[in-house]
Amino acid sequence: MNKTFDLDLAPYEAEELDKEATIPIINGLSDLYHPIQILADFLTLQEHYGSLSGLTVSWIGDGNNVLHSFMMTAAKLGVHLKIATPKGYEPERSVIQEAQRLSKEHGTQLVLTSDPMEAAHSSNVLVTDTWVSMGQEEEKKKRLKDFKGYQITMQTGSVAKPDWTFLHCLPRKMEEVDDQVFYSSRSLVFSEAENRKWTIMGLMVSLLTDYTPQIPMLKF
User: How far is the C-alpha of 199 from the C-alpha of 205, rounded, in Å?
Assistant: First the structure.
């Protein structure tokens, strides 16, 4: 299990470990990606909606590692992805290019904008995350100013689909999403948090054994 957040080394350390190791390497967290979080997020949506294919997920917030992992995964599951970030906080260019390629390959929609309401329009799922990640504490004052208008509220959800839900990988701060959304029946954050346990357990079991699921294969 590799978990690193050195802003200079993180994008490369997991890849180097993978090249040299004789055992599977799990990226538990890096500056560029957070793949095990995305396993929990999509399991949560699968449980709630019954299917992932055709869903529209809208990310409203920072272009960070969690978003990057959404971008690498959504199209493969038939999920459309809309992204709203403030100017200057967009996802990495290389990640955008690969996400565009995957979207074209799998016939899904990928939208990038700086308008939160545009991203939320006709969406099934609204997602956000911290605006100040580890290592960015000195930027907090500027970031809070730059992200003004990006808080997810019921007004944001008013342009989404009637069945819209909310995700946040936690811990959450008030400026990112208000209490009315966070503690509402639309919020799946506590199921999402629990699913971190089940998905990492499932991942480790699948890597350590010749485990065969005893339930029917999920339909995406």
Answer: 10
How many Å apart are CA 32 and CA 7, to the nearest integer?
A: 9
Q: Which residues contact 94 (CB under 8 A, 6 or more apart)?
A: none
Question: CA 29 to CA 10: how far, in whole Å?
Answer: 9
Determine the Cα–Cα distance for residues 119 and 122; give it in Å rounded to an integer. Answer: 8
How far apart CA 82 and CA 145 sit, in angstroms, is 23
Identify the DSSP state of 147. T
**Chain position carrying tokens 């199209």:** 75
Asked if pLDDT for residue 118 goes beyond 80, the answer is yes
- What is the C-alpha separation between 192 and 180, in angstroms, rounded? 18
| Residue 31 CB contacts under 8 Å (≥ 6 apart), including other chains | 4, 5, 6, 7, 10, 11, 65, 135
Task: Give catalytic residue positions.
Answer: 169
Cα 17-75-154 angle, rounded to 5 deg: 110
Nearest to 61 by CA among 11, 113, 19, 103: 113
pTM score, whole prediction = 0.88
Question: Angle, nearest 10°, between helix axes 35-49 and 65-73?
Answer: 60
DSSP H helices in the chain: 10-20, 35-49, 65-73, 93-106, 116-120, 140-146, 154-157, 179-182, 189-208
Residue 79 has pLDDT above 70, yes or no: yes
For residue 42, the Cα-to-chain-centroid distance in whole angstroms is 9
